[in-house]
Here is the input.
Amino acid sequence: MAITPLDIANMALAVLDEAPIDSLDQDVKAARLLNLHFDLAREAELTKHAWVFAILSASVPGADTGSGDCTLNFAFELPADCLRPLPLTHNGEPDGVAISWRQEAGLIYSDQPGPRLIRYVANLTDPNDWDALFTEVLVAALAIKIAHPLTHKSGMIDIARSAYDRALDAAFTAQAIQRGGRFYTASWAQQRGDFRF
Here is the structure.
C-alpha cells in the first residue's frame, strides 16, 4: 500500500486526537504546522540513527591534498544525498578495520587513498522507501513538534513523547537501526540506568 506525506501528517494528528486534514497545503493551523516541520523532522530522524533501510554505499574517488605523509591528506566528496557518513573502514564494510578520518562540510578526509567505499545514511524522501518502524518514529516526532502549538495542552506533549519512545524501542528491538553507528552508544546496561561503563 502506498503511503504519502499526508498520511503521515494525519497519523501525527491522530496521536494528538486531532481531526485529519485534506492537504498539507490546506489553510488550517494543523496543516501549516505539519508543512513547516515535516521535512526537517524527517531529516533529523534519519540523521539521528543508522537506519538500516537508509544506509547506502558509494565508491568515491579521492584527491591528494598534498598536506604530507601521515596526515589525513586524501579528500573524498560525499554523495549529494548523504545526511551523514558512517565510520570508514579499509574494505568499506561495517565489520572492517577502522581507518582514520574526519568530516568537514561535504568532504571526508582520510590517510588512505581512493577510490574509497563510503557507507552513509541517505536522505530518502519517498515514504514508500522507508521502513514502517521509521514511519512510526517520524509520526511521533511530528506529533511532539506540533503538540503544544496546536493543542495548547502540555499533556499532549507527554503522549507524543511516549509514542516516540515506544516507536524507537520497537525499531531497536527489530534491529531496524544498525547498532554501533556513530551516534548510538547505549548498551542494554546503559538503557537500564547502569552508567559504570
